[in-house]
Design a protein that fits this description.
mainly alpha; two-stranded parallel ribbon; two-stranded antiparallel ribbon; 4 strands; 51% helix; 9% strand; disordered N terminus
Length: 203
């Protein structure tokens, strides 16, 4: 029907944008297997409906928590335990605090119930995303027991390439908390050197 037309057009466009055989060999993309357009349309539509349902639930939610209050506590906790200079105790406390704020987010109330130009709803959605990002940063900081770049652990002042020359991956668990895993960094030309800003670096 007409409502499916944009999704169908996107699916067909995605099929047309697949690389040619030569490009596919470079990126490891199988161009021989065609995209199942009807399946793609169904999955995109299901995801869109789930998002809309979540927004409806948020508008109907009742509670006594305020967006400003949770945002203020999140900012203070991140500054205290996940700022540039951090340690195990402070960062662990921040992880617990952000997890608490995510639970309390379930008791916020969006005062504006309108469907058009609803800045209250926009701020609620932004705060939910910020809490996810804050928790990921804090949990990643807790697990990375070294200092690297702008990540300075006062209890682990050196850089540990053997353990932590890796990308941090955050995977959401059933309880909502992120689980940190690691992916090896591929060194192409030069290994990272020691940063020395003392002026006494030897060549």
């Amino acid at each position: 029907n007409g409502s499916d037309t944009p999704l169908l057009q996107d699916a067909v466009k995605a099929q047309s944008l697949k690389p040619n055989a030569g490009e596919a060999r470079e990126v490891g993309w199988d161009v021989e297997t065609p995209i199942n357009v009807s399946s793609l349309v169904w999955r995109v539509a299901a995801q869109a409906e789930a998002i809309v349902a979540g927004v409806r639930e948020l508008l109907l939610q009742r509670g006594d928590e305020t967006l400003a209050g949770i945002r203020r506590e999140m900012r203070r906790s991140m500054e205290d335990g996940a700022g540039i200079y951090r340690d195990e105790q402070g960062t662990r406390a921040t992880c617990e605090k952000i997890a608490e704020l995510r639970r309390r987010y379930g008791s916020i109330e969006v005062n504006d119930k309108s469907n058009v130009f609803n800045t209250d709803l926009q701020q609620a959605l932004e705060l939910r995303n910020l809490l996810d990002i804050a928790e990921t940063i804090a949990e990643g900081s807790l697990q990375r027991r070294e200092s690297r770049g702008a990540h300075q652990r006062l209890d682990h002042t050196g850089r540990d390439d053997d353990q932590y020359l890796k990308h941090s991956l955050a995977l959401r668990q059933a309880d909502g908390r992120p689980r940190i895993e690691w992916l090896d960094v591929t060194i192409t030309r030069s290994r990272p050197g020691v940063r020395d800003y003392s002026g006494g670096k030897k060549e």
